[in-house]
Design brief:
The model has no long low-confidence stretch (mean pLDDT about 80). The longest helix has 15 residues, at about 150-160. The chain has helices at about 10-15, 65-75, 100-105, 150-160, and strands spanning about 20, 25-30, 45-50, 50-60, 60-65, 80-85, 95-100, 120-125, 130-135, 140. It folds into 2 domains: about 10-100, Homing Intron 3 (I-Ppo) Encoded Endonuclease, Chain A (Alpha-Beta Complex); about 110-165, no CATH class. The two termini are about 35 Å apart. Helix content is about 20%, strand content about 25%.
Length: about 180
């Protein structure tokens, strides 16, 4: 985020040009923008298919819609990361957004498709013929375990420690913490 206040969009300016429905998470234009955008049109589109965050261009600058939703409702730019609780980056309903630290946001990330583990944060480990499993949570890495489940327990313990102030469940794959 830029540090100069002159670069920041105000809530007042945002509400002059867009409306936001917290129940659907959708922004609509209130103003005409050239020949292509009319009042009532849905604002924003994903930037890339692989990163489906909704971006909206306002006054020559692109903004992520989830950060605009926060500004629209709370009147200030979020200081932290805005996490999509259900993991869907295009779901900008207010009930799906929360301001969290980067480590909590990382913990809520979906498992990478190329991972050979059944669990978020757990990765295979191999060295000098020894095979096992390791968990990584932020910068903290576990010892090597024989099973994925043991490594997952390390990851969940770290998640419980960091996430103590957020009692809502994160991603469904975590199960009950």
């Amino acid at each position: 985020m830029r540090s100069h206040s002159k670069d920041l969009l105000s809530q007042q300016r945002l509400k002059e040009i867009l409306s936001y429905d917290p129940e659907t998470g959708i922004f609509h234009w209130l103003v005409q923008k050239g020949n292509r955008v009319h009042p009532g049109d849905i604002a924003g589109a994903p930037c890339l298919p692989s990163r489906p965050y909704i971006h909206i261009q306002i006054d020559g600058r692109k903004w992520k819609a989830h950060r605009l939703a926060w500004l629209y409702v709370y009147g200030e730019h979020p200081l932290d990361v805005i996490d999509h609780i259900n993991g869907r980056h295009d779901d900008n309903r207010l009930c799906n957004l929360r301001s969290v630290s980067q480590s909590v946001n990382n913990a809520n990330a979906r498992r990478q498709k190329k991972s050979r583990s059944d669990y978020i944060g757990v990765h295979p480990y191999s060295c000098d013929g020894f095979e096992g499993w390791r968990a990584k949570f932020g910068k903290k890495q576990s010892p090597v375990y024989k099973t994925q489940e043991e490594a997952r327990e390390f990851y969940l313990n770290e998640l419980r420690r960091v996430n103590a102030e957020f009692p809502i469940p994160l991603h469904p794959s975590y199960g009950d913490l």
